[in-house]
Amino acid sequence: MARNWQRREFLQVSGAAAAGGLALGGLRAEAHGEPPALPRPIAANDHIQIALIGAGGQGQYDTGVALQVPGVALVATSDCYQNRRERTQEKWGKQIFTTPDYREVLARPDIDAVIIATPDHWHKQAAIDAMNAGKDVYLEKPMIHHYADGPEIIAAAQRTGRILQVGSQRVSSMVYRKAKELLEAGAIGELNMITAWWDRNSDVGAWEYWVAPDASPATIEWTRWLGTAPRIPFNADHFFRWRCWQAYGSGVAGDLFVHLFSGVHFVTSVHGPTRAMATGGLRFWKDGRDVPDVLAGLLDYPQGFNLAIHVNFVDGGEENGGITFTGSEGTMAIGGGDSVTLTRVPRRPAVDYTIDSLTEAMQKRMMADFRREHPLTHPTGDPAARVERFVAPAGYNDSYDHLANFFSAVRSRQPVVEDPVFGFRAAGAALLANVSYARGQVVHWDPERMVLEGGEA
User: Does the global pTM surpass 0.85?
Assistant: First the structure.
């Protein structure tokens, strides 16, 4: 069972060396603090009963993690594909109720909450229907498919009083929480630049998922799955690889940028950017998709820093990603979702060697004044870089923490860490890249009012 690890269980590695001279990979970690107490037993009649809507890979993963949280039980699943419904019964028991129509799930009085992991174009309707039916909602990212979805989801949550958690798990991560603490403590001085990326070099990484051999109108309720998307003849590629088409997904921005924005917004406590410019193209995966496989964006934040972000599906190496925060006193890097590396370089004035154009007497006078004002603090005259690395325990899973936070809120009716307002601002920031790319121009967004200048069309 996954554990809800606390900050005190971080493994920390620290050391000091001249800038650039420390190899983090060779450092040893030491554990600090006692392990947390085991969760209290949950009475049989105190379980939160859940249903899964959208039983693809992400939905089944979310459900598997959810069932590790004490006091959670699965009652029903819904998916338009018969084979996936049967798979959920293989994994969790024949007693699981299954249906292609999620409205049958929502009509059940024995269900307290739902996990929604449908394609993006179903997020708004499924979430609103669930809240109207009195169910709390864990909604996979991105919260929205179109900007107009955001206000409707927020209004439904407020009107019904239901809990809605958006599924960008980094918002619950102990790694990102540590980064937030370090930034707020001034560990890197004044923040001025953030670089975020997520690169892949595989067919699966580029959403070229396998198509099941039995896929047909007989096994997939195609018209139901299309929903509000344009009516087209049955297409198995569209069903299994829906992220490749704008009609159902939000491209790399909605799939990957939104994770990076969620993390950035959580760490920096900002609401979002005000201006974005993006570029990219379809460079390699020319399989009929209508979204780019390379996308890069530059965004301005009113707090005085810029964000450079990119995704590359043909990066020539192994999948990698991360976020680097650059400040006036050093850098902080989140890598792989399991560590934070802090490199601090104290700022000190440099000697202006252009004084060599002056007489020796003038140089000596100026250097004497400089040394009085800025005495040497290091034998070499250069400040020492201090490097610290904070590593999550082996096996740590931020998805568990995110789902545990959701179920805790379901019980307590207290706010979740990623409510629909936060989710809308993260997704809204990410989708700015799509709008800028489509228009070929800079676009503006009001993160406070959550309004896109000029609309989405």
Answer: yes
- Is residue 323 within 8 A of residue 307, CB to CB? The reply is no
Domain 7-37+171-347+383-452 sits in which CATH superfamily? Dihydrodipicolinate Reductase; domain 2 (3.30.360.10)
Please report, for the chain, the start and end positions of each structural domain, with discontinuous segments joined by +: 7-37+171-347+383-452, 44-170
Q: What is the pLDDT of residues 286-295, one digit of tens each?
A: 999 999 999 9
- SS3 at position 332: strand
Q: CA 456 to CA 452: how far, in whole Å?
A: 7
Looking from the CA of 403 toward its CB, the CA atoms found within 13 Å total 26
Q: Which CATH superfamily is domain 44-170 in?
A: NAD(P)-binding Rossmann-like Domain (3.40.50.720)
Distances (CA, A) of 175 to 4, 10, 295, 330, 424: 13, 9, 26, 18, 23
Encoded tokens for 322: 């991360």
DSSP string, 11-53: EEEEEEESTT---GGGPPPEE-SPPPPPPPP--GGGPEEEEEE
Would you state the structure tokens that stand for residue 255, as one six-digit string? Answer: 């799939």
How would you class 106 by CB atoms within 10 Å of its CB: exposed for 0-12, middle for 13-18, buried for 19 or more?
buried
What is the sign of the dihedral through the CA atoms of 261, 267, 271 and 275? negative
pLDDT of residue 126 exceeding 50 = yes
